[in-house]
Write a structure and sequence with these properties.
Radius of gyration: 23 Å
Helix content: 10-25%
CATH topology of the largest domain: Peroxisomal Thiolase, Chain A, domain 1
Oligomer: single chain
Number of domains: 3
Largest sheet: 9 strands, mixed
Structural class: alpha+beta
Strand order of the largest sheet: 7-6-8-9-3-10-15-14-13
Number of strands: 24
Number of helices: 11
Length: about 475
């Protein structure tokens, strides 16, 4: 997709320059915890439906915290909006994207929107972002999708579902994958359903489900290929969200693609990541892409979206902060199925946290969600929480509010085996933040033996509790990257 820009050249000659619109950045986040499918199957006296393991949240994670991790992986200098897609967002009546924007400490004038109710929510958000940028948006729109889907215990879906998030930035500058064509079709076909009163999905999986998938996806693909004038053989990489791990080879053949064109799905190491799956696989494809490659992305659910990208030369200079291979390599495995279930259900059964008024929340938002401190205009010392007096030079003037860094290193720490925790022990650390400031934080997603003084950490927003109709979030820290302990 290209937008025309009118410019005036020498001698008042008018010409048109085509501006690219496409992906300017991409990142994924997989929770560090894993559980082998054999453990899930053994807990029910059965056999695994698929080899390998799946990703799984810790007790302090949800779809929103996963999404924030993915967004922070983009390292964008500017942002014009956040579109958040999820079928399992923590709030049904509260703009989750607005909470994400607050945690990113973004200005109030950015655009925010939630997309939900379908596994196609991620690509629906992508389509909306492309539309917004096409009509003149100057700053990139961040599209982030995250899911933590619940399946019935002992069902096949409990084993092959996974938890995760993926984010892409859509813009006009520094485009690494240009949009060449796109299409959508709507079809109220039954596959996975969850009513407003249900906690877990209902699956209508059958042979007919595969037929419906091929029919709906085939229509979207046909429209994109017709618009682009390309044949299936001219596509370097095809991204199809897996609906049945045993049927994907048949699906690819029926749609006219060879096995070597299909993007690896990582089902054996991560699982089906819900509406985050298309963007997750797009990021995986871009990690391996070369200039000129054509990538065909499909989102499926109550219809289908299809987007054709062409990779630009800028892909060669793009640096991925946390590559997928590294995230997959360094997991923490739950010792048992019971611990896996406890992590997923802990806050569902612990809703006795404090009741907060909107007055209190408004006063504390700057400190607890935006993570701002004060910086002394006289000596430059940064302090947290915000203060009116500089602890170093005792100045009471020139103190200004600043956003604190999201990385740092451990100054000192302790391992507490007595503190109440669903996953003991509790590791607490004093962290020196990049740019200044010192925080006292819990360390999460870590084995106690990995923690050491000087360890590099990244700040991460996590769920601390629930009560009074709210989920309570605050910052913790985790090892930077994977396997850095």
């Amino acid at each position: 997709m290209a937008a025309g820009k009118r410019i005036i050249g020498p001698g008042d000659e008018t010409s048109w320059v085509l501006e690219m619109i496409g992906i300017t950045g991409h990142a994924v986040y997989l929770p560090r915890h894993r559980i082998e499918r054999e453990k899930i199957a053994a807990a029910h006296g059965g056999k695994p439906v698929l080899e390998g393991e799946r990703t799984a949240i810790g007790f302090d994670e949800d779809a929103l915290t996963l999404a924030l991790e993915a967004v922070q992986g983009l390292d964008l200098p500017a942002c014009g909006g956040i579109y958040f897609a999820s079928t399992t967002a923590p709030y049904l009546e509260r703009m989750n994207a607005a909470l994400l924007a607050t945690a990113c400490d973004l200005p109030e004038e950015i655009a925010v929107a939630d997309f939900a109710h379908s596994l196609r929510a991620g690509t629906a958000a992508l389509m909306a972002a492309l539309d917004r940028v096409a009509v003149g948006g100057s700053e990139p729109i961040v599209v982030v999708a995250a899911d933590v889907r619940e399946a019935s215990p002992e069902s096949p879906e409990e084993q092959w579902f996974g938890d995760g998030a993926a984010a892409v930035a859509v813009g006009r500058e520094h485009v690494v994958a240009e949009v060449k064509a796109r299409a959508s079709v709507s079809d109220d076909f039954l596959d996975f359903v969850r009513r407003d009163k249900d906690e877990r999905i209902t699956s209508f999986a059958s042979r007919f489900t595969v037929e419906g998938y091929c029919r709906i996806v085939g229509r979207a693909l046909a429209r994109v290929l017709e618009e682009s004038g390309l044949r299936p053989s001219e596509i370097a990489r095809v991204i199809l969200p897996p609906m049945d791990p045993k049927m994907m080879a048949r699906v690819a053949a029926e749609l006219g693609f060879r096995a070597e064109q299909m993007q690896e799905t990582f089902l054996d190491r991560a699982g089906m990541l819900g509406c985050a799956m298309p963007l997750f696989l797009l990021s995986a494809a871009l990690e391996q892409a070369r200039p000129g490659d054509r990538i065909l992305l499909v989102g499926y659910g109550s219809g289908a979206d299809a987007v054709l990208f062409e990779v630009t030369p800028l892909i060669e200079g793009y640096v991925v902060r946390d590559p997928i291979a590294e995230q997959l390599r360094h997991g923490l495995r739950f010792p048992s199925y019971e611990r896996f279930r406890k992590a997923r259900e802990y806050f569902r059964h612990h809703d006795e946290g404090p009741v907060l008024s909107n007055v209190f929340y408004e006063k504390e938002e700057v400190r607890t969600i935006r993570l701002r401190g004060t910086e002394c205009g006289e000596c430059g010392l940064r302090q947290f929480p915000p203060t009116r007096i500089c602890q170093r030079c005792h100045s009471t003037t020139g103190l200004r509010e600043v956003s604190l860094g999201r990385q740092g290193e451990v100054f000192t720490y302790t391992v507490d085996w007595l503190a109440a925790s669903p996953m003991p022990p509790t590791v607490l650390a004093v962290v020196d933040v990049e740019g200044g400031g010192r925080l006292y934080l819990q360390v999460t997603d870590v084995e106690p033996s990995e923690v050491h003084i000087g360890m590099r950490v990244r700040l991460t927003l996590r769920r601390l509790g629930a009560g009074g109709g709210l989920y309570h979030y605050y910052w913790k820290c985790r090892p930077e990257g994977r396997g850095d302990g």
